[in-house]
Amino acid sequence: MSGVRVLVGTRKGAFILTSDGKREKWNVSGPHFAGWEIYHAKGSTVDPNRVYVSQTSGWFGQVIQRSDDGGKTWFQPGTPPGEEKGPGGTPKGESNKFVYDVSPETGKPLTTHQFYDGTQHPWEFKRVWHLEPSLTEPETVFAGVEDAALFKSKDGGKTWSELSGLRGHGTGPKWQPGAGGMCLHSVILDPSDPKRIYIAISAAGAFRTDDGGATWKPINKGLHSLYIPDPTAEVGHCVHHIAMNPKRPGVLFMQKHWDVMRSDNAGDSWTEVSGNLPTDFGFVIDVHTHQPETVYVVPIKSDGEHFVPDGKLRVYRSKTGGNEWEALTKGLPQENCYVNVLRDAMAVDTLDDCGVYFGTSGGQVYASADGGDSWKAIVHDLPGVLSVEVQTLK
Amino acid sequence: MIRVVLPQHLRTLAHVGSEVQISVAGPVTLRSILDAIEAEYPMLQGTIRDHTTQERRPFLRFFACGEDLSLESPDTPVPPAVVAGAEPFLVIGAIAGG
Questions:
Q1: What is the pTM of this model?
Q2: How far apart are CA A313 and CA A336, in angstroms?
């Protein structure tokens, strides 16, 4: 029987919410990695039991956790499950080392980027924001990190190497951190072309590689950002998230700092589709699994007030690929609600009807089993939600 | 043996209790203690010192015998009581949680 597994990263641990295909009754497990910030957790589509987690802390730095049994047990890659101890009881685990590649053979020099005050600042690794498992190889996974760079592991997260052509793109000194840091938060793999990857960085913009990560091109034409000196600059845009229906590669949707955008040519150009949204500021954006013109966003009041407008939590859905939006409110609080929904905190499953999930800064995770027509809180009182992903289990 | 007390989250990562004992070859300094900890517990690499710079992570501090050793040179010898195993070397997370 089919079912779903929702992976929730919060400010104080990870939680796993499971249900059958009806998505009415839920089991909650967690907190896993209690006390740590879980920026992201995502499962492999090739091997659904393979789940990668980014565990991070301002005190202790970055740790990668992995499960090979759907989240029942965890280990740091390099430590096989059940073999945590070596001879003499010594733990065998390895930490996870994210070091920018500055080697003359494959790397790029470590340059500077623009800091908040406009001065130049050296690149410094801080954390992993997003883990994107390969669509074909369970041992291969990509990591989008802060300060912005893309790493790749071919051994299940044990060792990582940087795809330095991105960080080494000549525009690096013009990149700058958003309020959350200079993070690479979106990684989209093109199922029709294994060499094509899309990424997005706050605040640099979106980039695309067509050669597996060796070289990258900014894909920000059509973006208009009033908060940077040149509103139509090649880079510097604060892209909050991008989404793509895997059945229709090349059509992308973007929630920018302000503005909801779409591209029909793999990011070569963008047009604004904010339409009748009450505000076009926001973080999340996602696309219906079976209806590639159906898009979801959660408008946020403004960049100065990171909560939903008018005290009402409303998901907005467009069935026309943007411009025409309808508010979805059934089951969502419509008074005295002042939560935010962060950029990686929305996901869709692949069941019929398409399930839609999102988590809030107030610790609620909402689910809709009917494409957004109605919503129900799976959990009410988790720590603030940083990320939501869903696995559809056959 | 050198006694080392780790903060709770690092104990969880390393699958150890409140105090670990490690042997340190040569002069017992901040650096040699941390080298020995990371050799014994590889999963702690990068969690106390930065992977690349080997500098102490900003929100961690080192104490021993009532002294704050956080700002000492990595090659500073630790107090004799730590070398003798009479006192532990403490790795402490900064109080920054509100």
A1: 0.93
A2: 9
